[in-house]
Amino acid sequence: MSTKRPSLLNTIFIIHLVLFGLVITGVLSRDIVTILTIWLVFYFIWAPLEDSGAYFVRSIPFFMAIPLTPSFDQFNMWRILSAVIFLKWFFVGGLADMWPGFINFFKKPIRFLTKHEFIFLSGLLLFMATLSLTQTQDLTSGIKRVIYFINLSLVGIVLYSLILKNKDYSQRIIKNLAIPTIIVTVLGFVQLSMTYLMDIYGFMRVWGEGIECKLFGEEWCYIASWVGNTWFAYFGEQLSLRVFSIFPDSHSFPLFILFGLPSIFAIALTRATSKTGHSTKALFKTRAKWFVLWVPVILLAIILSGTRGMWLAGISTLIGSFIFATIFLRNHMHEKNVFKYLSSYILIFVLLFMVAYPIFASPQFLLNKDNSDLLSNRVRSIIDFGETSNSLRLEIWQKTFESIKKRPWLGVGIGNFPVVLEQDVTLARAGSSAHNLYLNIFAEMGMIAFMASLLFLFLMLVKMYNNYIKESDWFIKTYFASTLLFVMWGLLYLMTDIVLFDERAFLIFSSIVALTLGINNSNSAGKNWFSKFFNI
Fold first, then answer.
1. Is the distance from CB of 504 to CB of 61 less than 8 angstroms?
2. Is residue 77 a part of any domain in this protein?
3. Where are its TM segments located (predicted)?
4. Is 473 in a helix, a strand, or coil?
5. Rounded CA separation 462/469 (Å)
6. Cα(58)–Cα(241) distance, rounded to whole angstroms?
7. I need a labelling partner for 459 at 20 to 30 A (CA). Which of 10, 75, 358, 400 fits?
């Protein structure tokens, strides 16, 4: 690969970051976002697909809403750029690669679908989402939601095809995923430091009425400032920041950096994990790269988000990981030792609560706190069913089950969950949901979509496991051992939230899916990637 292309990519990315910073701080007008988007469109058309894909994944949190009109300023630049990447791929080779598969599908559709489960399940989910539109109270919201998820999936399809053609490209994507993970974590701590320099009103002016407006548009700005947000932990008159960095809420931020952690592990720990024949104890004595220092920093940021479901899921993952290694890796001794070695880093997550304690207890927003029990109270509230958010969540789950019982097959229609709670459909953007990803899918799209989504996620975890066992490259092996840990952590957390549907969380998740499905499906010389995948 020419060194000029990555150099140009890095230069454009740095300019992007500078403009991003100047726009969200109000130094430059939001009109510059339109110019930046046009510039990137031309770059994506000109640059090789490999460069466009790498640029996209490293820029996921730094795409901003385009101020198209005063009343329509929330359309994000990633939606245009993902379409550009997909269309370029489609017309320069994607259609030709797909054509044999289409022919095979129309000749023997049942055989085709049963052999290729991920395409079948993805198609089934899209079909059920479309069919559920017949049940919607607000058809426009439902159609927008279907288009939204198609738009979110486009880059993942392209990344998947590029990885199938060239397995080495997967390493480039993995490394590029580490970049936004680190940057947004650092920005989260910058945000935290600001709570010691201004009162709550000043903070809301800077973030609620400033940065968030520039990032996501006036509609979200109004919701966050006047309808509700998840930015603070309250106990009586005491409050602490729940770190959310440059994300819309304190739920999508920790999920994003959690999904970015496998990239950090692969970069930092491959030197240790590749030492075959070493015991778990010996692996700890192997020096890792300095990059491993980002692991506790990111784990601390997850704690400081104040997201209790994330805390509980992390502890559950820690316990489950050692059980998993004992049962499913007993015939793969080195892989078992490596998995336990990687799992032990989650112990740091537990220990970091001692670091988080004085931060939560410190006088933020220029207010003294009467006691230092805010963090311990928040931890105890996890199992307090009388606590306000817990009792509301239980009430929402009860209403969701009642709705599922009434409409088990097609639900209330995609994008229309507020109907379950007898709310206006527009409140979906303000967070009206089942507070459980799986129940939300069931309530909106029905039983078939619910089962298809669970099966897709289960088979994806199985594929991650197989990639870990079968892959010979230890950089990639380390990545997939880590994805087993942290994706499972995220999926457990989603039993209390639907934040995977946030665009940034979904985009990084779709990148992980592309990596997972693309590895170990590389084609032999002379066969295109699609034909290889369909065994034509």
1. yes
2. no
3. 7-26, 32-49, 56-72, 78-106, 118-134, 146-164, 176-198, 251-269, 290-305, 311-329, 341-360, 437-462, 474-493, 505-522
4. coil
5. 11
6. 27
7. 400
For 146-155, b/e burial (b = at least 16 CB within 10 A) is bebbebbbbb
At residue 371, the 3 state secondary structure works out as: coil
Q: How far apart are CA 65 and CA 248, in angstroms?
A: 12
**How many domains, in total, are found in the chain?**
1
| H or E stretch covering 430 | none
Report whether 259 contacts 505 (CB < 8 A). yes
The long-range contacts involving 424-433, CB below 8 angstroms and separated by at least 24 positions, are 425/137, 425/138, 425/141, 426/141, 428/141, 429/219, 429/220, 429/223, 430/223, 430/227, 430/228, 431/228, 431/230, 431/249, 433/497, 433/498
Closest CA to 174 of 522, 475, 474, 471: 475
Strand partners, 76: 65
Range of the structural domain that residue 156 is part of: 116-197+249-369+390-536
- SS3 for 240? strand
Tell me if residue 268 falls in helix, strand or coil.
helix
**Distance, CA of 197 to CA of 193 (rounded, Å):** 7
What per-residue confidence (pLDDT) applies to 480?
A: 98
- How far apart are the C-alpha atoms of 63 and 11, rounded to whole Å? 17
CA–CA dist 491, 464 (Å, integer):
14
On whether residue 104 sits in a domain, the answer given is no
483 closest CA partner among 469, 468, 496, 493? 468
CB 125 within 8 A of CB 449: yes
What's the pLDDT at 338? 93
Q: Cβ(455)–Cβ(121) under 8 Å?
A: yes
Instruction: Note the Cα 315 to chain centre separation in Å.
Output: 20
Q: Does the residue 185 lie in any domain?
A: yes
d(CA 235, CA 475): 45
**pLDDT in the model for residue 277:** 64
Q: Please report the pLDDT score of residue 385 as a whole number.
A: 55
Give the Cα-Cα-Cα angle 284, 287, 290 (nearest 5 degrees): 120
Backbone angles phi, psi at 234, to 5 degrees: -110, 135
Beta strands 75-76; 65-66: pairing state:
antiparallel
First and final C-alpha spacing in the chain: 31
Distances (CA, A) of 414 to 418, 435, 444, 498: 11, 15, 5, 13
- Identify the segments of the chain with pLDDT beneath 50: 1-2, 522-536
* Dist. CA 27–CA 176, nearest whole Å: 28
**Computed over its alpha carbons, how large is the radius of gyration of the chain?**
23
* 1 located within any domain: no
Name residue 239's beta-bridge partners. Answer: 234
CB 533 within 8 A of CB 479: no
Q: How many Cα neighbours within 13 Å face the side chain of 56?
A: 32
| pLDDT, tens digit (0-9, with 9 covering 90-100), for 420-463 | 999 988 788 778 899 999 999 999 999 999 999 999 999 999 99
